[in-house]
Amino acid sequence: MKLTLRTLKYTLMLLLAAASLLPIIWMVFGSFRPYQELFKYSSSLSPHILIPVEFTWKNYQNVIFSTRNPFLRFIGNTLWVAGAVTAAVLLINSMAAFAFAKLRFRWKPALFALFMSAMIIPGEVTLVPNYLLMHDLGWLNSYKALIIPSMLSVFGIFMLRQFFAEIPDELLEAARMDGASLPRTFLSVVLPAAVPALITLGLMTFLGNWDSYLWPLIVINDHKMQMIQVAIAAFSSTEGTDWSRILAANTISTVPILLLFLFLQRYYIQGITMSGIKG
Amino acid sequence: MELRTAVPAAQPKKTVSRFHRHERRTAAGFLLPALLLLLVFVFYPMVQAVVISFQNYSLVGSKPSFVGLDNYVALLSDRNFYSSLKHSFYFALVVIPLQTALSLGLALLIQKPGRLSGGLRTIYFIPVIISTGVAATVFKLIYNKEFGLLNTFLKALGLPVTSFLSDPETAMNGVIGLGIWKAAGFFMIIFLAGLNNIPRDLYEAAHVDGASRLQQFRSITLPLLKRTMAFVVIMTTIDAIKLSGLVFVLTNGGPNGSTETVVFYIYKLAFQQMQMGYATAAAFVLFAIVLLISLIQMKLFKEEQ
């Protein structure tokens, strides 16, 4: 009885793992197949439903060297935007979090409440006015529209503040005794002590920006400047027939993010757990 | 605060006040960039949104004109708005129970540290980091009637083959399938954190008292997971009602508008039909609905405790 229950449990676990991974494995393998082969073996269950018969790099060549859909360019655009946003988010919000966690100043509770109240304002409501603001500033179709409004992370301030609050005051005092100014203390005492929290927030911000779709779709209209998600979606609807090429483009845009996650998953998961505790 | 008392008594008081001034100045400087961003990109647009929602506002054509409550009144009789709400709610009502059960199940399966659990946790989580655009294009293909992977499996199991995305009756279910595949791992992590917060000795005591596994689950795990459960249900509801990205890529609202969700409709109004005032009014209605639902849910979960 106990044994069958355990077998059942493990079967279930493996089936769910297969369901999680199969679409991705199929995508990666599919990207190495010639177009004619992709659907040839798909009507019945056989190993070739997944594994290529004739292995080819051609889809990748087509995708990478395409002039109409330069995927490396799209990835470069996205890396630049996501990287810039991440760096700015870390700097700006850790500074604010430090002020809220460790400094004394007037109206602190009121200001903190003001920041936190922004968490309930949904992006959908401010979508149109923010677009009009970009229009008025002349930022449409430039990376400023993608980078600058994204540099604030109220959640980041909240999370880092919790983290900074746990840094013992004695550490800050010691720095002060040594004659360090507060900005100096922030840079050489507080930030180094908070590296795990910074990695957590950085990773969440970077992945969030890598995945952003609606905002780039609205503010960027030069195809060459587009972000990777919008580019992939546009590619798959115009090249509707050349699926193996679409799979290659998908794979190229997934691998960097997958590697980043696998190396740093501990921090990313920590961040999600923290957002759950908040509720 | 510690900082003040730690200053040696021998030092003159002047240093304290000078430090305090330094502290206040640092705070102001450190808060300024975040505060500016908050005012310019959150609060100013929020105020603007209120104003725009009372206007007839189009980027092309005539100047914005004040129309009072007209936009809101028009929404009351907008059939397309109602059906987009209906699609969003259908998605939410199906996804909430299925996804909550699945993610709690995943968490329970891998909760015990074992040889497999670490690796499986990563595997179950991978769909979460797969980008929306990528996941949706791959699923478009997997759902395909003639040569999609899913139909091949269905056929092998002797089940009828379906065209998931081209039939208006079933297209939303296709979106739901992808939505759950992509998000279950996220909520699994939240449930894992909740499960790990339950003290071990409760289970030991129950075990000593002869409670079965099922009884332990019902009278320890579930009640103590209430807070986590509330968070998961509220988050899932909000995500479901705000669904748009997946729909954009997977079905583009079709076939026949059957997968048009509220946010998709708002986007269409604002950026395809250029009815920006009307779209913003719709966004406010959506905001009110989301707020109301989460307030009700919070109250319900509190009362049950």
UniProtKB/TrEMBL annotation, chain A:
<feature type="domain" description="ABC transmembrane type-1">
    <location>
        <begin position="75"/>
        <end position="264"/>
    </location>
</feature>
<feature type="transmembrane region" description="Helical">
    <location>
        <begin position="79"/>
        <end position="100"/>
    </location>
</feature>
<keyword id="KW-0813">Transport</keyword>
<dbReference type="GO" id="GO:0055085">
    <property type="term" value="P:transmembrane transport"/>
</dbReference>
<dbReference type="InterPro" id="IPR000515">
    <property type="entry name" value="MetI-like"/>
</dbReference>
<feature type="transmembrane region" description="Helical">
    <location>
        <begin position="12"/>
        <end position="32"/>
    </location>
</feature>
<keyword id="KW-0472">Membrane</keyword>
<protein>
    <submittedName>
        <fullName>Carbohydrate ABC transporter permease</fullName>
    </submittedName>
</protein>
<dbReference type="InterPro" id="IPR035906">
    <property type="entry name" value="MetI-like_sf"/>
</dbReference>
<keyword id="KW-1133">Transmembrane helix</keyword>
<feature type="transmembrane region" description="Helical">
    <location>
        <begin position="112"/>
        <end position="133"/>
    </location>
</feature>
<keyword id="KW-1003">Cell membrane</keyword>
<keyword id="KW-0812">Transmembrane</keyword>
<comment type="similarity">
    <text>Belongs to the binding-protein-dependent transport system permease family.</text>
</comment>
<dbReference type="Pfam" id="PF00528">
    <property type="entry name" value="BPD_transp_1"/>
</dbReference>
<feature type="transmembrane region" description="Helical">
    <location>
        <begin position="246"/>
        <end position="264"/>
    </location>
</feature>
<feature type="transmembrane region" description="Helical">
    <location>
        <begin position="145"/>
        <end position="164"/>
    </location>
</feature>
<dbReference type="GO" id="GO:0005886">
    <property type="term" value="C:plasma membrane"/>
</dbReference>
<feature type="transmembrane region" description="Helical">
    <location>
        <begin position="185"/>
        <end position="207"/>
    </location>
</feature>
Automatic annotation (TrEMBL), chain B:
<feature type="transmembrane region" description="Helical">
    <location>
        <begin position="228"/>
        <end position="250"/>
    </location>
</feature>
<keyword id="KW-1133">Transmembrane helix</keyword>
<keyword id="KW-0813">Transport</keyword>
<dbReference type="InterPro" id="IPR035277">
    <property type="entry name" value="MalF_N"/>
</dbReference>
<dbReference type="GO" id="GO:0005886">
    <property type="term" value="C:plasma membrane"/>
</dbReference>
<comment type="similarity">
    <text>Belongs to the binding-protein-dependent transport system permease family.</text>
</comment>
<dbReference type="InterPro" id="IPR051393">
    <property type="entry name" value="ABC_transporter_permease"/>
</dbReference>
<feature type="transmembrane region" description="Helical">
    <location>
        <begin position="276"/>
        <end position="296"/>
    </location>
</feature>
<feature type="transmembrane region" description="Helical">
    <location>
        <begin position="89"/>
        <end position="110"/>
    </location>
</feature>
<feature type="transmembrane region" description="Helical">
    <location>
        <begin position="122"/>
        <end position="143"/>
    </location>
</feature>
<dbReference type="InterPro" id="IPR035906">
    <property type="entry name" value="MetI-like_sf"/>
</dbReference>
<keyword id="KW-1003">Cell membrane</keyword>
<keyword id="KW-0812">Transmembrane</keyword>
<dbReference type="InterPro" id="IPR000515">
    <property type="entry name" value="MetI-like"/>
</dbReference>
<feature type="domain" description="ABC transmembrane type-1">
    <location>
        <begin position="85"/>
        <end position="297"/>
    </location>
</feature>
<feature type="transmembrane region" description="Helical">
    <location>
        <begin position="175"/>
        <end position="195"/>
    </location>
</feature>
<dbReference type="GO" id="GO:0055085">
    <property type="term" value="P:transmembrane transport"/>
</dbReference>
<protein>
    <recommendedName>
        <fullName>ABC transmembrane type-1 domain-containing protein</fullName>
    </recommendedName>
</protein>
<dbReference type="Pfam" id="PF00528">
    <property type="entry name" value="BPD_transp_1"/>
</dbReference>
<keyword id="KW-0472">Membrane</keyword>
<feature type="transmembrane region" description="Helical">
    <location>
        <begin position="27"/>
        <end position="47"/>
    </location>
</feature>
